[in-house]
Amino acid sequence: MIMRDYPSSFQLFFILKGSVIPKIYGKIIGVAVLSIAVLLVDQLLWELPHVSIGAMGIFGVALSLFLGFRNNAAYDRWWEARKLWGNMIADIRNLGRSLTIFMPDSTKHREILSLAVAFAHLHRGFLRGVDASDAVTPWIGADLAKSLSARKNPANAALNELSQKIKDDQSLSGFGQLKIAELLLSLGASQAGCERIVTTPLPYVYSLLVRRTTYLYCGLLPFALIESTGWFAPFFSAVVAYVFFGLQAVTNELELPFRHVQNGLALDAMCRTIEISVCETLDLDPPADWAVVDHVLT
Amino acid sequence: MIMRDYPSSFQLFFILKGSVIPKIYGKIIGVAVLSIAVLLVDQLLWELPHVSIGAMGIFGVALSLFLGFRNNAAYDRWWEARKLWGNMIADIRNLGRSLTIFMPDSTKHREILSLAVAFAHLHRGFLRGVDASDAVTPWIGADLAKSLSARKNPANAALNELSQKIKDDQSLSGFGQLKIAELLLSLGASQAGCERIVTTPLPYVYSLLVRRTTYLYCGLLPFALIESTGWFAPFFSAVVAYVFFGLQAVTNELELPFRHVQNGLALDAMCRTIEISVCETLDLDPPADWAVVDHVLT
Amino acid sequence: MIMRDYPSSFQLFFILKGSVIPKIYGKIIGVAVLSIAVLLVDQLLWELPHVSIGAMGIFGVALSLFLGFRNNAAYDRWWEARKLWGNMIADIRNLGRSLTIFMPDSTKHREILSLAVAFAHLHRGFLRGVDASDAVTPWIGADLAKSLSARKNPANAALNELSQKIKDDQSLSGFGQLKIAELLLSLGASQAGCERIVTTPLPYVYSLLVRRTTYLYCGLLPFALIESTGWFAPFFSAVVAYVFFGLQAVTNELELPFRHVQNGLALDAMCRTIEISVCETLDLDPPADWAVVDHVLT
Amino acid sequence: MIMRDYPSSFQLFFILKGSVIPKIYGKIIGVAVLSIAVLLVDQLLWELPHVSIGAMGIFGVALSLFLGFRNNAAYDRWWEARKLWGNMIADIRNLGRSLTIFMPDSTKHREILSLAVAFAHLHRGFLRGVDASDAVTPWIGADLAKSLSARKNPANAALNELSQKIKDDQSLSGFGQLKIAELLLSLGASQAGCERIVTTPLPYVYSLLVRRTTYLYCGLLPFALIESTGWFAPFFSAVVAYVFFGLQAVTNELELPFRHVQNGLALDAMCRTIEISVCETLDLDPPADWAVVDHVLT
Amino acid sequence: MIMRDYPSSFQLFFILKGSVIPKIYGKIIGVAVLSIAVLLVDQLLWELPHVSIGAMGIFGVALSLFLGFRNNAAYDRWWEARKLWGNMIADIRNLGRSLTIFMPDSTKHREILSLAVAFAHLHRGFLRGVDASDAVTPWIGADLAKSLSARKNPANAALNELSQKIKDDQSLSGFGQLKIAELLLSLGASQAGCERIVTTPLPYVYSLLVRRTTYLYCGLLPFALIESTGWFAPFFSAVVAYVFFGLQAVTNELELPFRHVQNGLALDAMCRTIEISVCETLDLDPPADWAVVDHVLT
């Protein structure tokens, strides 16, 4: 996730970090070059068939419909993913508070909360496709870390382990069991929600429709601009290509919000937030906040 | 569901699997041919009445309104269906955890969770209109599978059977009964949600309005393009037909998300995910993930 | 509710059942006739003031804004209404399961579930403004049916009666009381939700604004089409009138989703679904599914 | 709230009650007069600078964006407010049912439900800024009515009083306390939701932006219509002014849905619905429905 | 938050407080000056390349798409933030009522509710990045205020402290523990929701795309207006710049709703509402409402 102040009006045009331009400059240049070629041929060699700007307008409304829909859907996924992680942060903090209220035997609090931290890291590992063992081991020891990681769904296994711990405690009243079970179940629901997002991309057919339509649009545009913008055409084509290819590139990133990309969610930082909260609940020294490196929070 | 990486810019135009083109190429060609005919008659025989591109723009805004609405509504159905199945996955996992916490007599866990797996398969069978007996039998035996399948609503009958099992267990405390009953009730709510989607299509009148409007639009378009795009007209008509008929075809698939089509939900794979989770909870050997065949996950 | 397969491309233009055309053909013809008149006067008698198609475009965007908003709002009401009924189906099934788990004295199950079926029918009667006594009597007897129907809000009275039954049962534990009370309360919430939809139409002022604007638009359109579509104008006007009046007519039906109209919700069929579920829970012979008659499910 | 049947096509243009025209006719006439003046000056005195209709189109898209957003946001507030009141109706009915189930000492039911009715009236009074003492006194007596009204937040004080009553009852089991407390808490949440809507208008800056933009748009329009609509211009201007100022006036009313205006919510009628439900629960004679006076339900 | 009546039509154009103009007048003037320069050069020196207004229309639709999306997303954040604070107000009031019902030892009520008030202030301090000690000390004393403020997340620490208080009370039944724990957990969830909003801005790439596109649009507009609006061009450019830069400036403020800006949420006033409710619950003299100063409620 990019963390950066709003640039001044001047800086605005020179920022690359966090911009989508490095990903699409090839396409922008391609469209501009095509536009120049069309102009030159039309002026110097023979007249090309023109497309009226009104016809492009019809096409543009349809393209906006597609891009707008896909953008909304992708952003909703991104924001829902963030909400699910926010729920997990709240649930783990609330787990600490529920232990305080309902489990008199405070020696077990640390063990249980450590397992909850491990759950968060294992879940992050699963979502990003990375190995989270190093982050997990300090909390639950190498043996358990290894045995959990060996499961097909390590985060789910961590929650199962947690329920075993709850069951074994004799000091919990029925009310305490009920409340703490509810928090585990809520963690399970958030986890399944994230899995839903990661295993179910937007229907593939949309991506094809949108991408193909964008290419066709930007390929036809130079023929429409001959008349309506004259020698502005290459610049104008490039701007429109920037707008449409740019929106599409953004959407691709937000659609799968857990990946390790610039606009992905800051899962490392959120796991650290969980660690800090757990440490403060257990009266341990909390670690430092996860650092923003080169404007990026991972 | 299509599972496929983003194609390169070059490949993009040659992908058919997952594309909507095989379903609508007839219409695209039809519109292009009409456009050529209109052009030829207009140029060679007698001048046809032209429609100004501005008038088509007015029409196009209305059509976009319809298509956009229908697309959003269909996508919402598809995504809600996916959420409901995600809830069922989470609820069945959570059922396992609740049994761990609340039901000391662990000999019954397997029986109960097997019945939950059977519920998922029977529900899938109901939604897709297929026979799920083969998938159910290994979990609950042929007799019970048969008697459940004989009911009008087998998945509902499986949940009723589950509640019978809960009732019969003497080791459950009242709190355990409460929590586990809540999970059954949540499964019942998700099941009813899926039934709602499958039995209530989008109002039929929308389909008529949208389809008729699309046909009229694409039929009038060639008359509008004579002037504004010249010899580009057939190509342009085909592109616009691709865009509008394509969106409509996508929408038709997403509207009924449980069907066995390319962009339908991967119910088989989700039932397998449930089986894996249940096996891991019961310390059994989990089966392999459901395989993607030819880019399609069923 | 219309239940019908997608028509072929050819059939599409000849379907009347489920179409909005029988409701608006007068207006479509009116607009076409006006357009012919304008054309004839303009060509044969004296030149009429023209409206540029661009000006109509501005107007059209505003009209689309109105129609789009109203359509979304009406569809949301329709779909929310369907969700509330879906919740009631799930709650009544879940009531059966909760009785299994929590009420050992199974002799009362039938009485309680019959009352729940009666609730559904009385609620349907209230929403549609019809007398549901005939449907209710077989379940709860003529006397109770009569006394409930005499109340101002019979469905609410049925729920009150249900809570009396719960109170009178001595075999229910506190947990059972809690869970079953929650289901009654959830039924009460769904019922109040339906009442909200039925007693609170969309703000009247929207209907006026939208209808007046549509009339003005279709009245001005022929003056704009003289220039831009020539002799296509009557046809074009008729198509646009079909689109805008059609969308408005659809919206009127969806706005009040409980009425006995073609696109209203299938309350009869849903009450039957409830009856089937209750019969299967009580091991009684379930009745047949509610039949689709002439493509309409009531 | 306006309660009125759909008018016939003829009546449609002569309805004033429920229409927005009485509030904006000054502006409509102003725009029409300006348009006539512009036309006359342009034709008779000297040519005015024209604005192309295309430029107005760009402006119009932006204005539609603003008006559409503000309209959606205002309608959402109106509908959420209605939902919150619907929840309160359901909660008070459910309170009656919960008392039946959980509080054997039925002598207190009346006292508690009367206090709930008083809560609804005091809440209505707070939201509308009116004195609700007259409506409250018959239910809870003059003394308590007075002491509650003296608080800064009388409705909240009524809920506090209710919780005192619950606490004092010895016949309630813990389960009963829990369930009834949840209903009180739900009433408190709905009340706070209504307060949120009433104390947090839409950001003021939107109102300025939208209103200013509408004025500028309608002021520039006559210059654009000289060319594109000729002598239709005054009529056309008036229609567009009707559309845009009309939508804005509607939005102003819906934004604060509790006020005593034509399109405000029918709080009086909903309080009466609550009274009827409580009377029927207590087997008292229910009062008549709140009457629609001159098509308005308050 | 701006609290101000709707201005009259005349005042409307002279209001600065609450308007976005003071923030963007530089840009508006810049665009107007550019437009004058373009006009003069084009008329007096040499003809500049024109951009057709139709081409700008295509661009304008794309820009509207971006601005509309970003505006909706920012407003949703603002409104969700307000809902979360509304939930906290309701939860703290409900905490008071739950103490009444479930905690017979009323001597502790004050202590617990004071801590809840402190939680609200500390949370406000965290969100706004200000020191809330002065507001907290009168409620919980200087020592506790200091020790809480020393934590990394003081509001979370206050909730942990609250759960300690609940645990220590012997007079609470299990039901009371359960209900009150749920309220604490709900406060924790709202707090985490606010943290989510404050730590996760809208994806940075959107801000870049939107701002760059707006600049490009307003920079190209004067070339398009030469033809289509003539000497109106500078005025027209300024108006369009006002609309687009204005919407963008509004969006920037709503995106981070907790900041101490004109359109930020009135956190001070909401904390005061909580104080008043707590005082009224404890029968203490409530403080005055937070005052609106110069039309601004902080």
TrEMBL record, chains A, B, C, D, E:
Keywords: Cell membrane, Ion transport, Membrane, Transmembrane, Transmembrane helix, Transport. It is a multi-pass membrane protein. It is found in: Cell membrane. The keyword Membrane applies. One of its GO terms (molecular function) is chloride channel activity. Its main location: membrane. One of its GO terms (cellular component) is plasma membrane. The keyword Cell membrane applies. The chain crosses the membrane at residues 24-45, 51-69. Belongs to the anion channel-forming bestrophin (TC 1.A.46) family. This is Bestrophin. It comes from Paramylibacter kogurei.
